[in-house]
Automatic annotation (TrEMBL):
<keyword id="KW-0456">Lyase</keyword>
<keyword id="KW-0670">Pyruvate</keyword>
<dbReference type="GO" id="GO:0004609">
    <property type="term" value="F:phosphatidylserine decarboxylase activity"/>
</dbReference>
<protein>
    <submittedName>
        <fullName>Phosphatidylserine decarboxylase</fullName>
    </submittedName>
</protein>
<dbReference type="GO" id="GO:0008654">
    <property type="term" value="P:phospholipid biosynthetic process"/>
</dbReference>
<keyword id="KW-0865">Zymogen</keyword>
<dbReference type="InterPro" id="IPR003817">
    <property type="entry name" value="PS_Dcarbxylase"/>
</dbReference>
<dbReference type="Pfam" id="PF02666">
    <property type="entry name" value="PS_Dcarbxylase"/>
</dbReference>
<keyword id="KW-0210">Decarboxylase</keyword>
Length: 288
């Protein structure tokens, strides 16, 4: 079970999990780890995604909405052709207002947020695992630009809205897709795998108007059939960048040294080891 801090209600709650016992079995038993290996390849997630694109999959929508208390009043459409059509639904613009002040750091997705400092040697820790930026993006020259900076990890659970946005206005300087496995991104998986350096990921380097250079990386996960990136080269703050197909997933956003200050309530919860529930476009910090 994972405890989450809800900053709007100022209280913690236990996150609902899909297949929690199955994930525990797969990662914490010898037999489970043996059975897990073939499931980590994209072919399995693509197969599951194909099933969620069938008309028959529509019947899964109602129980999902009821179990996870999904507010369909926020959606642009209320009828869907498949479960994945529902899962990747767009919300009305007024459902997720963007904090537009130039000095505001925003959440790029509905998600659970953890923030980390990047050391002067380029190392940071995610869920007790030490990573280097170069290990994640495989580009030394880009990684060096973020030494001493701040890393924001947005974990999208299965019940979160799975579209995401640009953190600021700017332009794309570079991009790279790194193929890999598709581990779960749940906290449990991090104890058994180097999730962010083993999973399929897609990173881009941005030159932004207000925060210097920003590194943005989408991380695929178990049962996520595909990362759908719209591929804009010039963009505005809060503009939709892309979406994930069915499943959990994560987005890593790195800022350069002395560029951002994380909101104190988020920083305090993170120091206690709690992820913080945030919404697409919500203010999570400010310019340092």
């Amino acid at each position: 079970m994972t405890l989450i801090y809800d900053r709007k209600l100022k209280e913690t709650y236990t996150e609902a999990e899909v297949g929690g016992r199955v994930v525990t079995f797969l990662y914490e038993t010898a037999l489970g780890r043996f059975l897990l290996k073939p499931l980590l390849y994209p072919a399995f997630s693509n197969f599951k995604a194909a099933r969620n694109n069938t008309k028959r999959s529509v019947r899964k929508i109602k129980p999902f909405v009821e179990k996870y208390h999904i507010n369909l009043d926020e959606a642009e459409q209320t009828t869907f052709q498949s479960f994945n059509d529902f899962f990747t639904r767009r919300l009305r613009p007024d459902a997720r207002p963007i904090s537009e002040a130039k000095t505001t750091v925003i959440a790029v997705a509905d998600s659970k947020l953890m923030t980390y400092s990047i050391s002067e040697s380029g190392v940071f820790q995610i869920k007790s695992r030490s990573y280097t930026l170069n290990e994640l993006i495989r580009d030394t020259r880009v990684a060096e630009q973020f030494i001493g900076g701040t890393c924001l990890v947005f974990r999208l659970a299965i019940d979160d809205y799975h579209r995401y946005c640009y953190p600021d206005a700017g332009k794309k300087l570079a991009a790279r897709m790194i193929p890999g496995m598709l581990h779960s991104v749940r906290p449990l998986a991090h104890a058994h795998a180097r999730v962010f350096s083993e999973n399929t990921r897609h990173w881009q380097l941005f030159e932004t108007e207000n925060f210097g250079r920003v590194l943005f990386m989408e991380v695929g996960a178990l049962l996520v059939g595909r990362i759908h990136d719209h591929g804009a080269t010039v963009f505005t703050k809060g503009q939709e960048k892309g979406y994930f197909s069915y499943g959990g997933s994560s987005i890593v956003v790195c800022y350069q040294k002395n560029q951002v200050k994380i909101a104190e309530d988020i920083a305090a919860a993170n120091r206690e080891g709690l992820e913080v529930r945030v919404s697409y476009g919500e203010k999570v910090g400010s310019h340092a």
